[in-house]
Amino acid sequence: MNLIYIATLGIITLASCVNSVRWERIAQREHYIPGSITKFYFRWVRSRSLNRFLLFTSFILCIFSLFFVYVPLLISILNIFTPIGLSFKPRTSPVNVTERLKRATYFYYFLIVIISIISLSFGYGYLLALAANMFSFFIYDQALRFLFNYEKNKSRPFVNSASKIINSKSIPVIGITGSYSKTTTKNTLTQILNQSNKVFVTPESYNNRLGIAKAINEGFEEDHEIAIIEMGTYSNGEIREICSWVRPHISVITGIAPVHLERMKSLENILDAKSEIVELAGSVVINGDDEMLLNEARLWTNQKNVYDCSITSKQAAVCVDYDDGKHDIYVANKYIGTIYGPKLLQLSISLSVGVLLALDLDVKKYINETDSLEKSKHRQNIIKSDLGHTIIDNSFNSNPMGIEYSLESLQELGSTESLRYLVTPGMIELGSDQFAINYAFASEASQIIDKALIVGKTNKNALKIGFQEHDIDYEIFLNRDEAVKYLNSIIKPEDIVLYENDLPDHYP
């Protein structure tokens, strides 16, 4: 065994370790779910013909690696840059170097080194080390899989501490979930309750097990009178586990839609997962315009107080009528008062009033104390750019239920001289319906916009076909930064831009 052989093996191993930089980003953005890195690796491979060519080339070169000492080096270097497009440097958000991320990466290093040692010790040549290099994405997934239960057990004291804190006082706890409008409803309810109460609320989108625990451990104070907890889920059982220690007294379900359908597989699974939030609650507040949810709620009426909240029917427990910035509120078909705010808040106001009823509070008093409400950041906020044009920012998390509000805002703003631009990567995690939903989105937007800027390749074909069929001018860009640069070169002060969604940079 010569020095060149050992050095080559070392370089292959080092190259495999370097690959972890990209896998870390995917792991963190996908909540450390085992298998997610492999899934996204092949998404990038499928998205570009160059990546398919490089993958094929690597396999062919493996044959020659048996005969030429420098070929394995070429393969390992090639794999550092594959898949093309998934850069080492994050664009949309930085990697948060947590202890969990360090442990996952260190264990990945351990697996890579062990494979190289086995390759060295048992006479496999470069074969095993080269295989580990080519499939480093898969090995990182195995590291996540191996550590999954360990991480859950390790965080248990942290979660138990949060549980002890939030249950140490007899205050109402309100849990909010749903396929859409969770954060908007949370923020609307907080604004209303804050008029007369000190409210603890989970910040931003801290809606998973550890995010909620962190928020409680760091932010809950002795004089808080009400707690509002937003809960999200990627699989069945997650919300049930959160509720086992948060113990909500009132549960809110905003609605069921094909969001995260790629993970959840069906609307029925989504409904089952979201419905876990009602199991320990005494009262349930639901979107009364969601037929699927309404049918499910009929099973709860014997054990719980159910409040159906509508934006269409005054026969519901709560109804909110919207007209020109005014939300007229009806309880049991009786006018209670008016709150001013954008149309986007109509459902969240209705659900918030339902929570007031469930809390047995004086609804009229709270409504009268609330003059107007504000939208959440990056949710259809209307701002003026430095160049003078109007921006509708709905870049946080687009979904099929919310785009109509965005398009309405785009249509209502501006003058006859205004050009209307749409900058979007489309909507994601919609499973088998993703193409159809994005095509429908493009078709609907075509009735309003003058030009579309398609970002990324994830939904490129669906959006392109939708715009083409309606003779809408469009451009395609690899990422949002490129789209913005182009837009700023052609836009005029009287024009309007809708930014609808923004892909995380681990999406092609």
Could you explain how this protein is built, in words?
This protein is 47% helix and 15% strand. The chain contains 21 helices and 15 strands. It is globular and about 85 Å long. The protein has three domains: 152 residues, no CATH class; 203 residues, 3-Layer(aba) Sandwich (UDP-N-acetylmuramoyl-L-alanine:D-glutamate ligase); 120 residues, Mur ligase, C-terminal domain (Protein-Tyrosine Phosphatase, Chain A, Alpha-Beta Complex). It has 508 residues and is an alpha/beta fold. Strands 2-3-1-4-5-6-7-8-9 form a nine-stranded mixed sheet, with helices on both faces.
Which secondary structure elements does this structure contain, and how are they paired or packed?
Blueprint: H1 3-18, H2 20-29, H3 36-47, H4 49-64, H5 71-80, H6 99-121, H7 127-134, H8 136-154, H9 156-166, E1 173-177, H10 182-193, E2 199-201, H11 209-219, E3 226-230, H12 238-246, E4 250-253, H13 261-264, H14 267-275, E5 283-287, H15 291-297, E6 305-310, E7 318-323, E8 326-331, E9 334-340, H16 346-358, H17 363-369, E10 381-384, E11 390-394, H18 403-412, E12 420-424, H19 434-445, E13 451-455, H20 460-469, E14 473-477, H21 480-490, E15 496-500
Parallel strand pairs: 1-3, 1-4, 2-3, 4-5, 5-6, 6-7, 11-15, 12-13, 12-15, 13-14
Antiparallel strand pairs: 7-8, 8-9, 10-11
Helix pairs in contact: 1-5, 1-6, 1-7, 2-6, 2-8, 3-4, 3-8, 4-5, 6-7, 6-8, 9-11, 10-16, 19-20
- Strand tally: 15
In CATH, the architecture of the largest domain is: 3-Layer(aba) Sandwich
Given as residue ranges, the uncertain stretches (5+ residues, pLDDT < 50) are none
Query: How far apart are the termini?
Result: 43 Å
Look at the structure and give the CATH class of the largest domain.
Answer: Alpha Beta
What number of structural domains do the residues give?
Answer: 3
